[in-house]
Design goal:
The protein has 15 helices and 4 strands. The chain is mainly alpha-helical. The chain has a two-stranded antiparallel ribbon with strand order 1-2. The two termini are about 30 Å apart.
């Protein structure tokens, strides 16, 4: 059995890369993470395995499997003499965030907690380990642009399917997922359709409409990048390009009909941020397309324009806005017991107070150090993706790096409108995106590293547990 990062003395195509190689081959990182994305998007957030509560979500359990596989691969990993190690800011930032969370958890347990807070705190730590599994497997197992492109395509397709389901829910005014209640061994919690200003707000498989719109807005920049690059493939047929533009338009339509300030702000940020990345000949088409879609929706959906305008013009009197404003005024009061490391992850329950702001909740639970660590992880991810764009000559790496940076920063912005880490799909997708930011920086850096030193035996360049990036001629027909 060869551990993750084992060296090979002959070129291997991307399709042959695996986390483990040997007589009984385990699927590669792309396949493992694809299973996670499918479980995350396809199974409703409120569906859990009986008896496990919040720990019974299939995607979360699969994340623990990924963490176990990553640990096993690291135990068997060994460096090669003379091989370099690529500094990975995303890994460093995540480890800092993890350590601060562990310190906050330990301090909370040592202080003693009411019985109602102990279980949520333990569950929060287990969920974080699951997220770590996804992030680390992506950073250490996704090795080529083909791998990155495959996962980005699957995220975009998943978001488009979620948008299609949400539209069906709005048209039928039915949840359409009640059949999960009849599956033996599963429990179905709260979730489903909501209503605002007399119109239905869909959530697809998410627990809440805000979680849903955050997910599709994060994927919107990836869809635009896929449309501009032909799906991150070499053979860019006209049909494929039109398909991706169609998926982008589809997600845009659903985001604009979500009757949510978060949805509209996230949509505008995603679209506006991607315009500079588009070739000049496409920019006018992107802007015109956005205007046309908006105009068609205003005509096709009676009352949509007035309802949307009221979200902003009446924000000062809106209950949700006032609630968020009043909550922020009390933030210092809740942080006072432990301002540096917080009261403990998962210990500040919704019945105590609802902030609808992940940054505020993190400040209470993890303190100032925790918020800085979380922000540092997201900044490191966006920087890594941006660095990949700046250092690579591959157009797919450049556009994908830019889109990933936009997706992470857009998600960070939308987390200011709800406690995103408490919602499985939004939190899970964020860690996938952060992992991809680290992976694409490695791809770009390895691409720029000379494959052979003068007079040396041919050997792939080394990185931290990542050393088998093939030459361009091996990248599924790229040359």
């Amino acid at each position: 059995m060869k551990p993750l990062g084992a060296r090979h003395t002959a070129p291997r195509v991307a399709a042959e890369h695996t986390i483990f190689a040997g007589r009984n081959r385990i699927p590669d990182a792309v396949s493992l993470v694809t299973v996670y994305i499918v479980l995350l998007f396809a199974i409703p957030s409120n569906v859990t395995i009986n008896g496990l509560g919040s720990l019974g979500r299939p995607a979360m359990l699969w994340g623990l499997v990924l963490f176990a596989l990553w640990v096993l691969s690291r135990l068997g990993w060994r460096s090669t003499p003379g091989g370099g190690r690529l500094a990975q800011p995303v890994r460093t930032a995540f480890v800092i965030y993890l350590v601060i969370t562990l310190v906050s958890f330990a301090a909370a347990m040592l202080r003693g907690q009411p019985a109602a807070q102990v279980s949520p705190a333990i569950s929060t730590m287990i969920i974080l380990i699951s997220s770590a599994g996804v992030l680390l497997v992506i950073m250490d197992g996704v090795r080529t642009m083909n791998d990155v492109g495959a996962l980005l395509r699957r995220i975009a397709i998943g978001a488009a399917l979620l948008a299609a389901l949400a539209l069906l829910q709005v048209l039928t005014q039915q949840y359409l997922l009640d059949f999960w209640r009849s599956v033996p061994g599963l429990s179905v919690g709260f979730g489903g359709l909501a209503e605002r200003n007399g119109q239905v707000r869909a959530a697809a498989t998410a627990t809440h409409p805000l979680e849903f719109v955050t997910t599709i807005n994060a994927a919107l920049s990836i869809c635009v990048a896929a449309a501009l690059s032909g799906g991150f493939r070499t053979g860019r047929s006209r049909a494929a390009v039109w398909w991706w533009w169609g998926a982008t338009a589809w997600i845009a339509v659903v985001a604009l009909t979500g009757l949510s300030r978060t949805a509209i702000i996230g949509f505008i940020v995603a679209l506006a941020a991607m315009i500079p990345a588009a070739p000049r000949r496409f920019r006018a088409w992107v802007i015109a397309g956005g205007i046309v879609i908006t105009s068609m929706l205003v005509v096709a959906v009676p009352g949509l324009a007035s309802s949307t305008l009221r979200l902003f013009t009446g924000a000062a009197e809106d209950g949700s806005t006032l609630s968020r404003t009043d909550a922020l005024a009390r933030l210092g009061e809740f942080m006072a017991p432990s301002p540096l490391i917080g009261v403990g992850p998962g210990t500040f329950l919704p019945e105590y107070y609802i902030f609808d702001n992940e940054w505020a909740v993190s400040a209470i639970q993890l303190g100032i150090l925790g918020v800085l660590a979380f922000a540092g992880m997201l900044i490191a991810a966006a920087w890594s993706a941006g660095r990949a764009r700046a250092s690579s000559r591959d157009p797919d790496v450049r556009i994908a790096g830019y889109a990933l940076a936009v997706a992470v920063l857009n998600t960070a912005l939308q987390f200011a409108f709800f406690d995103g880490l408490s919602f499985p799909i939004a939190a899970g997708l964020l860690f996938v995106l952060v992992g991809l930011c680290g992976a694409i920086r490695t791809v770009a850096t390895t691409e720029a590293t000379p494959l052979f030193a003068a007079g040396a035996t041919p050997m792939y360049p080394s990185s931290d547990a990542l050393s088998t990036f093939p030459p361009r001629s091996a990248r599924d027909g790229r040359g």
